[in-house]
């Protein structure tokens, strides 16, 4: 049983179904990537999980019990893609206000604000209005306001938008630390390289439906195409390399990328080069990136049936 379990969730609008019979489980302390093209239903799904929208069908279990927005909302931190800071309000006052909305006392909130403002080096902006901050600085304030009450479930929608590489790494490290300390995180983004680097598990949705979900490593393994990169001490011509055990995909500066044929094994590849007396310097299986899996699955769903 996970911290969050979604069962057969559905949400209909007048013209379309935004979420269509989606189920998944998020283990406690994991970083869960929610992926999908624009209009896939991600935002609607997140809003149901946070109690902003009510599902038309299905169940949401939080900590093993039916989700109760009134009671459970203080255990959730949600940073939406459309940022919600008040432009005319001072940064410190805003952080204090949002912390108290999440059930913290003024004393607790001030102590936490000092800790996080020190850590993110933004004390100089405490009495500045939000509209005076850069987009990246506003993003840091939004992030602090989202995690300040130490939520059990943290939902981050495009958290790196507007951040430079240094501040992106700062936020990324905080995400890892929070997960390490038991926070369960839903991470929604379009940047696939971040998903691969940050997430333990992912779910891909398209047109309101779940396409796949599981551990990142397992998904990459499941979609492998038996491709291998072979590094060689000398690069022979095609005639020397050719064998029925594999086909040549491409030649590289220091070797080849090959595709294993059905019925053959990696040992057959290695044995072939040994017989040719061509020293092998490296041998690596090429697994598809999450971006490649994402594109393949979305295109497969959208291809018309002839």
Q: What can you tell me about this protein's structure?
A:
The structure is a single chain. The chain contains eleven helices and 14 strands. The chain has 306 residues and is an alpha/beta fold. The protein has two domains: 4-221, Rossmann fold (3-Layer(aba) Sandwich); 225-286, Alpha-Beta Plaits (2-Layer Sandwich). The mean pLDDT is 89. InterPro entries: AAA+_ATPase (IPR003593), ABC_transporter-like_ATP-bd (IPR003439), ABC_transporter-like_CS (IPR017871), ABC_transporter_ATP-binding (IPR050763), DrrA1/2-like_C (IPR025302), P-loop_NTPase (IPR027417). Keywords: ATP-binding, Nodulation, Nucleotide-binding, Transport. This is ATP-binding cassette domain-containing protein. Residues 4-232 form the ABC transporter domain.
Strand and helix map with partners:
Elements (H helix, E strand, L loop, with lengths): L3 E9 L4 E10 L4 E5 L6 H8 L7 E6 L2 E2 L2 H4 L3 E4 L11 H11 L4 H14 L15 H13 L5 E5 L7 H16 L3 E5 L3 H7 L2 E6 L2 E7 H7 L4 E6 L5 H4 L4 E7 L2 E6 L5 H10 L4 E7 L3 H13 L4
Parallel strand pairs: 3-8, 3-9, 6-7, 7-8
Antiparallel strand pairs: 1-2, 1-4, 4-5, 9-10, 11-13, 11-14, 12-13
């Amino acid at each position: 049983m996970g911290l969050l379990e979604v069962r057969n969730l559905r949400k209909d609008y007048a013209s379309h179904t935004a979420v269509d019979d989606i189920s998944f489980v998020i283990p406690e302390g994991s970083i869960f990537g929610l992926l999908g093209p624009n209009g896939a239903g991600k935002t609607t799904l997140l809003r149901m999980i946070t109690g902003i929208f009510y599902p038309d069908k299905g169940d949401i279990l939080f900590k093993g019990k039916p989700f109760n927005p009134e009671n459970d909302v203080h255990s959730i931190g949600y940073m939406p893609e459309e940022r919600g800071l008040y432009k005319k309000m001072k940064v410190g006052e805003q952080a204090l206000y949002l912390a108290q909305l999440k059930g913290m006392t003024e004393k607790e909130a001030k102590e936490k604000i000092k800790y996080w403002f020190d850590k993110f080096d933004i004390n100089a902006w405490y009495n500045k209005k939000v509209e005076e901050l850069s987009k990246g600085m506003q993003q840091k304030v939004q992030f602090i306001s989202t995690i300040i009450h130490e939520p059990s479930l943290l939902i981050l929608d495009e958290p790196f938008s507007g951040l430079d590489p240094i501040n992106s790494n700062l936020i990324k490290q905080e995400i890892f630390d929070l997960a390490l300390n038991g926070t369960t995180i839903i991470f929604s983004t379009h940047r696939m390289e971040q998903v691969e680097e940050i997430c333990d598990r992912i779910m891909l949705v398209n047109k309101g439906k779940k396409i796949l979900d599981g551990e990142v490593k397992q998904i990459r393994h499941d979609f492998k195409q038996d491709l291998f990169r072979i590094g060689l001490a000398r690069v022979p011509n095609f005639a020397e390399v050719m064998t029925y055990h594999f086909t040549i995909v491409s030649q590289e500066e220091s070797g080849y990328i090959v595709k294993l044929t059905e019925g053959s094994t990696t040992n057959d590849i290695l044995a072939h080069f040994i017989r040719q007396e061509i020293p092998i310097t490296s041998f690596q299986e090429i697994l598809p990136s999450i971006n490649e899996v994402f594109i393949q699955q979305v295109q497969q769903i959208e291809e018309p049936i002839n």
